[in-house]
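Cont'd.
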Amino acid sequence: MSKAAYVRPLDMAHGRVDMSHGSGGRAMAQLIAELFAAALGNEYLAQGNDGALLPQINGRLVMSTDAHVVAPLFFPGGDIGCLSVRGTINDIAMMGAQPLYLAASFILEEGYPLADLKRIVDSMAQAARAAGVPIVTGDTKVVEQGKGDGVFITTTGVGVAYDGVTLSGDLAQPGDKILLSGAIGDHGMAILSQREGLAFDAPILSDTAALHGLVAAMIASGAKLRVLRDPTRGGLATTLNEIARQSGVGMMLQENTIPVNPAVAAACEFLGLDALYVANEGKLIAICAAEDAERLLAAMRAHPLGQRAAIIGAVLEDARGFVQMTTRMGGCRMVDWLNGEQLPRIC
Amino acid sequence: MRYVDEFRDPVLAQNLSASIALEAGAGFGYRFMEFCGGHTHALSRYGVLGMLPSNVQMIHGPGCPVCVLPIGRIDFAIRLALEHDVILCSYGDCLRVPASDGLSLLKARAQGADVRMVYSALDACKIAADNPQSQVVFFAIGFETTTPPTASIIKQAHAAGLKNFSVLCNHVLTLPAMEAILNQPGGVPLDGFVGPAHVSTVIGSAPYQLVAQRYRKPVVIAGFEPLDMLQAILMLLRQVNTGRAEVENEFTRAVTPQGNRKAQALVNEVFEVRDAFEWRGLGSLPWSGLKLRAEFAQYDAEARYPEMHFVSVPDHKACECGAILRGEKRPQECKIFGTVCTPDNPIGACMVSSEGACAAHYTYGRYRDVMQEGS
C-alpha cells in the first residue's frame, strides 16, 4: 500500500513568495491550490487546464485588458486586488457591454509575504463574487527580489455588448449633454495621502467600484447613449479631452455642477492640485443626446453608485477639440490635457 | 469649504467685475503686472481674466521661482545627483524643468539618479537623518516665501550635527526683480503692480514704497483668491484714475507693513545676499539672490562640492521669455508659443511651470487667441 506523501501546508502567516512558486513545479501547484483556487474557486478554474472552456456566448464580444501597478498595494478604501477586478469590469462596461469572465495574471516579487498576497487574492475573490464576474483562468510568475514592486496584476475581461448599443469615443455630437456619475478625485487623493504620508483628519477613501450595474440601469433607461468612459488616470479633464479629440468636438463645462467631496477639495487646495485631473476608480462620464439627458440622469441617480450624478456640461461644435469651463466665479477658462504627471506646486 | 468659498463668491465677483468696468471706463488702456506666479495661476484658473474689460490688461511678471531658475542651476543639481551619487531632494514642480542634454531631474532619475520629491525642506532633512551613509542635497528654490523654511532647516541640521545634509541654494529676492523690470531702457508701459501675497507676509508691505516712490507706480498687495485679485485690480484702477502711486494692502488678513520679523531675522542669520544671480529670462541681476553665510558653509552644497561650477546656459534664440517677463510682450506674440514651445516640450522659462506666463496662457487661455483669429 503506497502512503500519500505528506505536504506541509503553505505558511500563510509567516511564509514568503520564493522563486519556486513560479517555477512550474510542485511549489507552484501548491500555491495555486491553497491560495488562488481556494479563494477564487469556480467551475471554470476547477477545470485545471491551461485555459478555461466557456459556454457559448451569443452576441458581439467585447474584450479588454488592464495592467495594475499601484503603490501602495493597500490604500484607504481598497487594494490592488479589488482594483484589478473592477478596473477591467469597468473597461468592459464602458463599451456598453455586460462583463462575463475575467482572467488574472500575477507577477510576484520574491520575498513578498504570503499573508499580504492572501489578502489581495481574497479581495479579488470578494470583488469578483460581488460583481458576479468569475475569474476563470490565470497565471503566476515570480521575479527576483528588487525586480518587481511586490505584486503586479494584469486582468483581462470578456463581455457581451448590449443589443443595439454601440458606444465609442468618436460619437459625441454638438448639442449632446455630458453627465458625471458622482464626486471626483477620491481615489487619487486616497493614494496620494498614503504615498506621501499625509494624514487627514477624515481619511479619504478610494471610490473603487464596479460600474457594470450602473451601466445596465443606464442602458435600461432607453436614453440614446453615445459615449461612456471612466475617468481614471488623468481624471475628468483628461478623459473629456480624449473624447473631444476623438469626436472632433469642443465641450463647455459648468464648474459649479461638478461634485467634489469637501475632504478632496480641501486636500487638493492644500497640495495645489486640481481635482479635475485626479484619478477616479468608480465614476463614469456619459455623453447622450440632449433630449434624453434628464431621463438618463434620473436612472443614474436611482442607482446607488450614481446618487450624486449631475449634468456637467454640453458638447459644442469646435474642430480644435477645446474643452472650456465656466468657472464657479462666472469667468471662463480652458480645461486642457494633463501635462505630464500632476505635481504639487511649491507655493 | 470655509475660508475658501468666501473668497470665491460668484455674486461678489460679478459686483467687483462691474465696478472694475465702471472704473476703467472706455478707451484708455490700463496695464498692470501681477508679479507673482501664484497670481498668474489664480487669474487663469478661476477665469478672472475673462471678467476684466478689454482695456484692462494683465501682464504676467517673473514671480514664478521655477521659471526664473536658470538651466545652469538645474544642470548643477542633475550633475550632483548623477556624478556624486547624492540623494537630491526637490520640490515637485522643479522635477520636469528641461535642462541641458535633454535631461530634467525626472529624466535623471530614470538614468539612475536618486531624485526625491519633497513637500518641505523638513522632509529633506528627515531623509538625511534616515540615510546616514548617503549625502543628501536639498535643491532650495523660491522667493522670500520658501527661504525661511530653508533657513530653519539649516539651523536644525546644524543643531543636530547632521554631517550628510547640504542645500543647493537658489533663493531669490522680489524687489531686485521688480527694479530690473522698471529699469528697462526706454521705460516700461506698466501702470502698476499687483504685489505678491505670500512673499509679502514675510517681507511686509513697506519695502514696496521704493516702487511707489522712486518709480511712481502704484502697488496693491493681494491675496491669492479670485476675489482678492479683482479687489486689487479695482484698487489699482482707482489709484491710477486719481493720480496716486501708493502701496496699498488688500491682503490685510495676512500682510502687515513690517512683515514677519522672526522669519526675516532667521533668514538674515543663515543667508547673505550674493553679488549677482542669474535669472532665466532676465539675465544676471545684482544683489538679487541669496547664499549661505560662511558659518554655515558645511551645509552649502556649492562649498561642499567645490569642483562643481555653475555654467550659464543661454536661452533659446527664438524664445521671447525675456520680453514677456519684462512685460514687453504677451505669450501669444512669441513665434514659438504653442508650436515648438508647449508645456509638454517647454523651450522657454515661462512655459516651464504652471505658474509661468506662457504655460498659464497655453493651459487656460489659448482658446481665446484662436477665437479672435477666427472672428
